[in-house]
Specification:
The chain has 3 domains: 33 residues, no CATH class; 201 residues, Glutaconate Coenzyme A-transferase (3-Layer(aba) Sandwich), CATH 3.40.1080.10; 53 residues, no CATH class. It contains 8 helices and 16 strands. A hairpin with a 5-residue loop joins strand 2 and strand 3. It starts with a strand and ends with a helix. The N terminus is likely disordered.
Length: 314
């Protein structure tokens, strides 16, 4: 029975597994099986933006990330979020916690949509007490650090949809969101399409921009208002910081974004694509998500060729 107490600090979920009752100081709801848990309450309430907080003409630029964090009222123990559209080419997360260290901040929780080997320097910040723990996918040295039990808090992994759910339902409250934007205007409208560090969509940072108490956009490509198209709306942004470089797009394709070369996995990908075609799912106007992963990406390549031959557009 879900919720049955089995030992101090642990409870048994519907799968018969012992899981913590409290994680990083927050009470948890154990998995109760299909339809075993019905969420209640209301979504988290984001702060109401007001133009009175901004200088004349809506120019939200400040001189540095340190100035922006100070204006956001950064304090010990806060939750800071970043996104991973640059994957192993991200430069902003390390920059963020280097600044936090210089400001003397401690016990921060890092809430990335994912982290990568390029973020190894943050291990030093955990060792020195700047970062208490990470709740987000940890890859490479950070994953090893957590697996070895060296992180003081408990690592929490969520799907991308689960992360959005945790934010909107108030399970994780973001004090300050820091968004690396390849293109932004002085008001804070931003996208990932234009600029030398163009990475595509900024979907992983969207929930952060909507629900965080404070939002900082960091860009290396400032354009006149309005930045079109905008995915991050300037009305949800508090400060804009211009830096020399926010990321290396050449390192976006790394790890799980490399197409598999395994014959077995290529065969699986091809057969899945054939199934989608032969089952009638592949028809004009349909939508699909392949996601990261070498096999998934190979599937998309096979499906693309089948769609081209059939004249189908998704």
């Amino acid at each position: 029975m879900a919720g049955k107490s089995v030992s101090a600090g642990l409870t048994e979920n519907a799968m018969g597994r012992q899981v913590p009752e409290v994680v990083n100081g927050k009470k948890q709801v154990p998995y109760g099986g299909v339809h075993g848990h019905r969420p209640g309450g209301r979504k988290a309430a984001p702060p109401i933006p007001t133009a009175a907080d901004y200088p004349a003409h809506g120019d939200k630029r400040v001189k540095s990330l340190a100035d922006a964090l100070g204006a956001c009222g950064i304090q010990d123990g806060m939750t800071l979020s970043t996104h991973h559209h640059f994957r192993n080419g991200d430069l902003v997360a390390n920059m963020l916690f280097d600044v936090c260290a210089r400001l003397g901040k401690r016990e921060l929780m890092w809430f990335p949509s994912a982290s990568f080997p390029c973020h190894e320097p943050i291990i030093a910040h955990m060792e020195h007490g700047v970062v208490h723990h990470i709740e987000g996918s940890m890859n490479g040295p950070l994953g090893d650090y957590c697996t070895d039990g060296k992180m003081r808090g408990l690592g929490v992994l969520r799907s991308h949809g689960g992360r959005w759910q945790a934010i909107q339902d108030g399970e994780v409250h973001i004090d300050i969101a820091v968004i690396a934007a390849p293109c932004a205007d002085p008001f804070g409208n931003a996208n990932g399409v234009h600029g030398p560090a163009g990475c595509g969509s900024l979907n992983f940072a969207l929930a952060d921009s909507l629900y965080a108490d404070r939002v900082i956009v960091v860009t290396d490509h400032l354009v006149p208002f309005p930045a079109i198209p905008w995915q991050i709306q300037g009305s949800n942004v508090d400060f804009v910081v211009c830096v020399d470089r926010i990321g290396d797009p050449s390192k976006i394709v790394s790890g799980t974004t490399e197409i598999t070369k395994s014959p077995d996995r290529l065969l699986i990908a091809e057969r899945v694509a054939r199934f989608v075609r032969d089952a009638g799912i592949m028809r004009s106007g349909f939508s699909f998500q392949a996601g990261a992963g070498g096999t998934s990406l190979a599937f998309a390549v096979y499906l693309r060729e089948m769609m081209k031959r059939a004249g189908v557009k998704a």
